[in-house]
Specification:
By secondary structure, the protein is mostly beta strands. The protein has one helix at residues 4-25, and strands spanning 60-66, 68-69, 72-84, 87-90, 96-101, 108-109, 114-119, 130-133, 138-140, 150-151, 158-161, 166-173, 185-190, 193-205, 215-222, 234-244, 248-251, 256-258, 261-267, 273-285, 288-292, 299-303, 312-317.
Length: 318
C-alpha cells in the first residue's frame, strides 16, 4: 500500500489543528476581521457608532414660520341691494287701465310733473283720463307700470327717489344677529366692478326679526360717495362682526389632533429638533385658529408634521 497520500493527509490535519489553537489563544482584536466579535469596544461596522449599518437618525425637512399674535376678524357674508335713502311710491287717484306713461326708469322729474294717465272707462261707460302727478322731485328708480295694465288706488305706478344719497340694505340670518350693531364695518363688491372694494358702515339695525324669513334688516351707508354706485345694483357684502385678539393664531393645517388633544410641533431653541407641544384651541376664522400654549416668537412647523415625532431632527425651510 502506498503510504505517501496518508502522510500528506496527516500533515494537513496537523496544520489545521495548529491554526485553530493559534486563533483561539490570540489576544482580543488580533487575527480577526474588522467588525467581527472581539473588535475594540465602541467600534462596529461601517454605518454608525455602536450600531448596525444605516442606524443613524433621519433628518426631516420641514417648513416653519414665526408664531405671532394676530387679530382675527370674524365676519358674516350676505347679499343686498342698493337703494335711495329717501323714496316715495306713486299711486293713482282712481282705478282703471294705464293709458300712457310719460317717464321711464332713470327719468328726472319735478314735483307736479305728469307721470302717467289712467283710463277709468269700463265697457259701456267712458270717462275722462286721470293724470298721475309726481308727489316729489327726484329720479324714477323703479320701472313704471306698462300701458294697458289694470291698476287700483293701491297699485304703485313707480317710485321716485334721491339717487344722490344711497344706502345698502341687507338681511342677516337669526343665528348671527347677536353680534350685529351700529358702527360695524363692511366691505362691498358690486357685480359691475368685481375688482373694486367699497367700504360701508352699519347705520341702522331693525329692532325686530322677520318671522317669515328669520332675518333682521340692516342698513349701511357707503363711507364715500361714488358716482359708479347706482340704485338697484346687487351687492356682495362682508360684514365684520367681532375681533379676537391677544392670542397667538396659527394655521389650522399645522394642528395635529390625537383623540381629544391637539398638538403643534415647535422648533427647539437650538433649531435642530421638533418638540411636540399640546395646545388649547380658541376661535377660528378662515384658515387661522387661536392656539393657547405657544409663545409669540416661537417657530412652529407648518409643513411636514405628519412624519415628525417628539424630538425628531429637522432642517428648516422658512
Amino acid at each position: 500500500m502506498n503510504k505517501k497520500p496518508i502522510a500528506i493527509i496527516s500533515l494537513c490535519v496537523v496544520a489545521i489543528a495548529v491554526t485553530f489553537i493559534y486563533i483561539k489563544k490570540a489576544p482580543a482584536g488580533k487575527g480577526q476581521m474588522p467588525g467581527m466579535q472581539g473588535a475594540p469596544a465602541g467600534k462596529g461596522m461601517a454605518g454608525g457608532k455602536g450600531g448596525p449599518m444605516g442606524a443613524t437618525e433621519t433628518m426631516v425637512t420641514v417648513k416653519t414660520q414665526e408664531a405671532k399674535k394676530t387679530v382675527l376678524h370674524d365676519y358674516v357674508n350676505t347679499n343686498g341691494e342698493i337703494e335711495s335713502k329717501s323714496s316715495v311710491a306713486v299711486f293713482p287717484d282712481i282705478g282703471g287701465k294705464v293709458y300712457q306713461n310719460f317717464v321711464g326708469l332713470g327719468s328726472v322729474v319735478k314735483k307736479g310733473d305728469v307721470i302717467a294717465e289712467i283710463d277709468p272707462s269700463e265697457p259701456g261707460a267712458y270717462y275722462t283720463h286721470s293724470k298721475v302727478f309726481a308727489p316729489v322731485s327726484g329720479t324714477i328708480i323703479a320701472s313704471v307700470v306698462e300701458a294697458g295694465t289694470k291698476v287700483s288706488t293701491q297699485s304703485v305706478i313707480t317710485t321716485i327717489g334721491d339717487v344722490s344719497n344711497l344706502q345698502l340694505k341687507v338681511k342677516i340670518v337669526e343665528r348671527y344677529v347677536a353680534n350685529i350693531r351700529k358702527g360695524l364695518k363692511a366691505k362691498v363688491i358690486l357685480d359691475a366692478y368685481e375688482n373694486e372694494v367699497f367700504e360701508a358702515t352699519v347705520v341702522k339695525v331693525s329692532p325686530v326679526l322677520d318671522q317669515n324669513s328669520r332675518t333682521k334688516e340692516v342698513v349701511l351707508d357707503f363711507d364715500k360717495k361714488d358716482e359708479r354706485i347706482n340704485a338697484g345694483m346687487f351687492a356682495k357684502v362682508t360684514l365684520y362682526t367681532v375681533d379676537y385678539s391677544e392670542v397667538v393664531a396659527v394655521p389650522t393645517s399645522c394642528i395635529v389632533a390625537k383623540g381629544k388633544h391637539n398638538y403643534v410641533f415647535v422648533v427647539s431653541k437650538d433649531g435642530k429638533k421638533a418638540v411636540k407641544r399640546e395646545v388649547f384651541l380658541g376661535r377660528s376664522v378662515d384658515n387661522l385658529v387661536q392656539a393657547e400654549g405657544i409663545e409669540e416668537g416661537e417657530r412652529i412647523v407648518i409643513e411636514g408634521m405628519s412624519v415628525l415625532t417628539d424630538g425628531s431632527l429637522i432642517r428648516e425651510i422658512k
